[in-house]
Design brief:
two-stranded antiparallel sheet; 11 strands; about 500 residues; globular; nine-stranded mixed beta sheet; alpha/beta
Length: about 500
């Protein structure tokens, strides 16, 4: 192990309790669906195209024994067995969803084995069994509460042969949205998360209302003289003096403000003890078990602009037109423990994106956003549980359920639940976010521009109706808004001494 400035911290991490889970318990908010599998396949094509190989590391010759941890449906493992015909490949996953051997070519199936097990427990393999171990996007499955990352990496080092190689491709757990639209909302635990909202007039697009847990809100709940008519503005009774200025003069809700869902996403990660930024902690954890680590600059994909913004002229230095040089961007170099070196490394990566290449980041961004959105959709019920914890203890939120005439059918079909109205508000927030992301993804527009397809006949998509229903002044981003990212991806190649 290399000596680093974090040695004392490293020892403390390794001394933490190893496991408080029940045997076999899975720690993940994600429900693995066929849609996620499809984007896993797209990710595989994207990564192998960038690397010009199955791996980030350039092997002199094919590794003999290979372990793919968290193999999913087994696409990479199958491709490795096909390309490296002298190699034996083991795919390890918690789910038994891989194809049966009888549907594969015999030359592949005889060198390919599927093993089911929990990554957070001891791996069912011998010491020094593998030449190469691969682990991709496991940030939603490895918690930090019991030093799980160090434990998992120590297990990988155990099953690797001397001078064996671990390749990790990981990403930060981002919730894509334009954060500059956020306003202050206090959840039931007192944390800021969203907007305070009411309706003003019959043409206001109403999607949800805020939930504020405060002394003033509790007083409102206990004040028998305060009625729904008072808060909705239909009564001549004045608001109690305990209300703050925002509640006295509420602004109409912003359908493009997704801060409540973003806060619920962060709460969900916190509940599962998942790091929202694995890329910031992995260098430290990897240094505990591996003698040498190489990496490339973080690949950050900017959040695509919405359809209204896309109609505006693009500036010369707009990041959406920046081109990536894959050969340069994924150039490996030794990973330093010094933060200043790391900052310089990523700064150099930012400059690389301005250089010419054969790929356009704007073309990539829509698919990266779609992939991130699909992952978050797979966590929807876990996000709802966090949303309920954040806002469920507040007094029953008040809302005037009116929409513009251009509202989508999905909005009008939603009805408040008689048993849990909070779920109705969550679904309205969710529809807003999905429509915003579908607009930014613009797959229909990409097909039209790339394949020269004409606009399909029939009803416009819900996201377009949603976008058209917004006030014109609210549909474009401010010129000074900071760049938001929909994906932040990085690879690490680690060598065992």
């Amino acid at each position: 192990m290399n000596d680093t400035p974090h040695t004392k911290v490293d020892v403390e991490l390794l001394s933490l309790p190893k496991c408080r889970r029940l045997p076999g318990e899975v720690i993940s908010p994600l429900t693995y669906t066929n849609d996620i599998v499809n984007f896993d396949h797209w990710d595989h094509m994207f990564i192998t195209n960038c690397f010009k190989s199955l791996t980030l590391h350039d092997f002199d010759g094919p590794p003999s024994m290979i372990l793919d941890l968290g193999c999913g449906r087994g696409l990479w493992a199958i491709e490795a067995a096909k390309q490296w015909q002298g190699s034996t490949v083991v795919g390890f996953d918690i789910e038994s969803t891989q194809p049966r051997s009888n549907v594969l070519e015999k030359s592949v199936s005889r060198r390919l084995k599927w093993v089911q097990g929990n990554l957070l427990e001891q791996l069912p393999f011998l010491n020094g069994q593998f030449d190469f171990v691969r682990m991709v996007r496991m940030g939603l499955h490895i918690p930090e509460d019991e030093a799980s990352w160090p434990s998992v990496l120590a297990e990988i080092a155990r099953v690797l042969k001397p001078h064996g190689i671990l390749e990790v491709i990981e990403e930060d757990l981002l919730f894509p949205c334009q954060s500059t639209r956020s306003h202050d909302v206090t959840s039931s635990n007192g944390k800021s998360s969203g907007t305070s909202s009411s309706t003003q007039g019959s043409n206001t697009v109403v999607t949800t209302t805020s939930y504020q847990k405060s002394d003033s809100s509790l007083k409102i709940k206990n004040d028998t003289n305060t009625t729904l008519d008072t808060l909705s503005g239909t009564s001549s009774t004045s608001l109690p003096s305990v209300l703050d200025a925002k509640l006295r003069h509420p602004k109409p809700p912003d359908p493009q403000d997704h801060s409540r869902l973003q806060r619920a996403w962060e709460e969900m990660l916190d509940t599962y003890f998942l790091s929202p930024q694995p890329l910031s902690v992995l260098p430290l954890y990897l240094s505990l078990s591996f003698s040498s680590i190489r990496s490339h600059p973080t690949l950050q994909i900017p959040l695509p602009r919405n359809s209204s913004d896309r109609q505006r002229p693009v500036t010369q230095h707009s990041v959406s037109t920046a081109r990536l040089d894959c050969a340069t961007l994924f150039e490996l170099r030794a990973l330093s423990a010094q933060p200043s070196s790391e900052a310089d490394f990523n700064a150099r990566a930012s400059m690389m994106t301005a250089k010419g290449s054969q790929r356009n980041m704007c073309t990539w961004a829509c698919m990266h956003l779609a992939r991130t959105v699909r992952t978050i959709v797979g966590c929807k019920e876990s996000i709802w549980n966090a949303y309920e914890r954040l806002y469920g203890e507040d007094p029953t939120p008040l809302i005037v359920r009116t929409t513009q005439q251009k509202s989508t059918s999905a909005w009008s079909d939603l009805r408040p639940s008689p048993t849990n109205p909070l779920r109705d508000y969550f679904e309205r927030d969710w529809i807003n976010w999905e429509n915003d992301m579908a607009d930014r993804t613009s797959l229909r527009g990409r097909m039209r521009s790339e394949l020269m397809w004409s606009e399909p006949i029939g009803k416009p998509p819900d996201w377009r109706l949603w976008r058209n229903s917004l006030p014109q002044e609210d549909t474009c981003s401010s010129p000074d808004e900071s760049t938001e990212y929909c994906r932040s991806l990085r690879g690490f190649v680690c060598f065992k001494s």
